[in-house]
From TrEMBL:
Keywords: Aminoacyl-tRNA synthetase, ATP-binding, Cytoplasm, Ligase, Nucleotide-binding, Protein biosynthesis
Species this chain originates from: Paenibacillus konkukensis
CDD domains: AsnRS_cyto_like_N (cd04323), AsxRS_core (cd00776)
Subcellular location: Cytoplasm
Protein name: Asparagine--tRNA ligase
Gene name of the record: asnS
Subunit structure comment from the entry: Homodimer.
Organismal lineage: Bacteria, Bacillati, Bacillota, Bacilli, Bacillales
Length: 432
């Protein structure tokens, strides 16, 4: 039998009208002659009230049978209710059970993290996890909208590659028939090729790092957004990045207020995220750390404690620019006035969330790129196609990469990135 269903998020359109909702029972309580059903349908939550004296006996009986996560169709009248978080309540006139759930493993009591991760396929039904995933989806929409409105083209680089983007060894190896292949850790080099064809491009896809890390900031499989832009310099690159991040945060504030409330996120901190962002050089960052009790030498890379100490000085993200050439990737363009540093920047999120963007102007001089290949002992055969980009119409160009999960963690105010993706892949977790 076909039926016209409404969504919980749209009940405000049906004030004082009758709707039918396909849903699950999140929770239930009873005062004897009244049953209060907490319902969810993926789009939101609503309380439905079943009054014994106002419904048929079979409706009251069906409501009484419902257990946590049972599935059902509920018909009722939409009533305005200022006490409800959604502003509305459902006065039930009909209940049709689809399935009675028994022994649902995630109860309202406290569960350990490992237990919840083992039941991640069910944990994502909870209000908190749903809120995070809704915000993640809004961030993705905001990202696509930002680039689409500015004339960028979405390009999909390969996931299987014959070599590493940054010359690292933290790659997942596989066989590509009779050849060696790796799961991508970045689509950047391919995006540079796409930028030479389409001008301004971005990719949005999964990347993989075989790092044996267990920190709260790291995932084995995560999603990256990687724009590349022809005829764009280092300074222009920074301006685009700060506009980009500002627009993402403001979009979440505009569309996900309820979800941020569920997470108890301090939105006053997010409201301050407006471009432009402060900038400090690597030199200034080193000087600050040394003055504030950190043992740190020029030429080292920053760790999480260093990034946190620097970020605590600001209420918005901060750029750290011009890192030493020796600790950055082979493709980054040296500063013409000071070749021991490169025209790059990391964007450090506030509140201790660390680097969310890394970017740079890329080397466009073919001779310098040849030198870099020799210094990093890279295979010319494997990278010949990349060298061709400097051989045939080389231009100044820049790009960056934003890690989606770290960005979600920061905007949501989460303690660990494992909650930012539906099914996280961690060092010791490949299930479910």
């Amino acid at each position: 039998m076909s039926r016209q269903l409404s969504m919980i998020r749209d009940v405000d359109r049906h004030k004082d009208g009758t709707v039918t909702i396909g849903c699950w029972l999140h929770n239930k309580r009873s005062s004897g002659k009244i049953q209060f059903l907490q319902l969810r349908d993926g789009s939101g939550f609503i309380q439905a009230v079943v009054v014994k004296s106002e419904v048929a006996p079979e409706v009251w009986e069906a409501a009484g049978k419902l257990t946590q996560e049972s599935s059902l169709y509920v018909t009722g009248t939409v009533r305005e209710d200022s006490r409800s978080k959604s502003g509305y309540e459902l006065t039930v006139t009909g209940v049709e059970i689809i399935q009675i759930s028994s022994d649902y493993p995630i109860t309202p009591k406290e569960h350990g993290v490992d237990y919840l991760m083992d039941h991640r396929h069910l944990w994502i039904r909870s209000p908190r996890q749903r809120a995070i995933l809704v915000i993640r989806a809004q961030i993705i929409r905001a990202i696509q909208q930002f680039f689409d409105e500015r004339g960028f083209h979405l390009v999909d680089p390969p996931i299987l590659t014959p070599s590493s983007c940054e010359g690292t060894t933290n790659l997942f190896h596989t066989k590509y028939f009779d050849e060696d292949a790796y799961l991508t850790q970045s689509g950047q080099l391919y995006m540079e090729a796409a930028a030479m064809a389409l001008g301004r491009v971005y990719s949005f896809g999964p990347t993989f790092r075989a790092e044996k890390s267990k920190t709260r900031r790291h995932l084995i499989e995560f999603w990256m957004i990687e724009p590349e832009m022809a005829f764009v310099t280092h300074e222009e690159n920074l301006e685009i990045q700060e506009q980009f991040v500002s627009s993402i945060v403001q979009s979440v504030l505009a569309h996900c207020r309820r979800e941020l409330e569920v997470l108890e996120r301090d939105t006053s901190k997010l409201e301050k995220i407006q471009a432009p962002f402060p900038r400090i050089t690597y030199d200034e960052a080193v000087e600050f750390l040394q003055k504030n009790g950190h043992e740190f030498e020029w030429g080292e890379d920053f760790g999480a404690p260093h990034e946190t100490a620097i970020a605590e000085q600001y209420e918005t993200p901060v750029f750290i620019t011009c890192y030493p050439t020796e600790i950055k990737a082979f493709y980054m363009k040296p500063d013409p006035d000071r070749p021991e540093v490169v025209l790059c920047a990391d964007m450090i999120a506030p509140e201790g969330y660390g680097e969310i963007i890394g970017g740079s102007q890329r080397i466009d001089d073919p001779e310098l790129m040849e030198e870099r290949f020799a210094q990093h002992e890279l295979s010319k055969e494997a990278y010949q196609w990349y060298m061709d980009l400097r051989k045939y119409g080389s231009v100044p160009h820049s790009g960056f990469g934003l890690g989606l999960e770290r960005t979600v963690a920061w905007i949501c105010g989460l303690d660990h990135v494992r909650e930012t993706i539906p099914f996280p892949r961690l060092l010791y977790r490949l299930y479910p």
